[in-house]
Amino acid sequence: MEQEHLVDMEENKGATVKSFTVKEVSNYFEIREALEGLIIRSAVERLTEEDLRQMEEICEKMETYLDMGDFEEYSQLNKRFHDMIYRASDNQQAVEMVNLIKGQLLRYHLRTILIPGRKENSAKEHQQIYRALKERNAEEAENAVRRHIANIRKTIEEHFAFLV
To answer: What is the pTM (predicted TM-score) of this model?
Structure first.
């Protein structure tokens, strides 16, 4: 875990969960934004019609759970949505890197949905990603996923004190 920068090892204290500065978190999200763009471009043509049907259903359920305030279920659906894109990608090295970054920043990312306005934006962003994928428009899919990650990054930058 120390090699993955998830914990800090201190002599006579043991392992402590690593804390990041706002700049470090922002940098990781910029990297993730670029990687997600690569991943979705390679997934656009590889997603099946059944994948797209499931993604549409996931988007609908995500909105329902957000409206209900069930952020745990929303989070699981969000993970499923992105995992479907990752599985369809032929760039598994980029997927591995994104998953490493997501693991490091999970505690920051999960709380962003509690920021006023973020849940509504998140639902819209996933719909935009889905529509671009359904249209098999690689450029728009990349733009949509990059906007989505950039918006998470901006939310974290603006509300970092709340999220730590």
So the answer is: 0.87
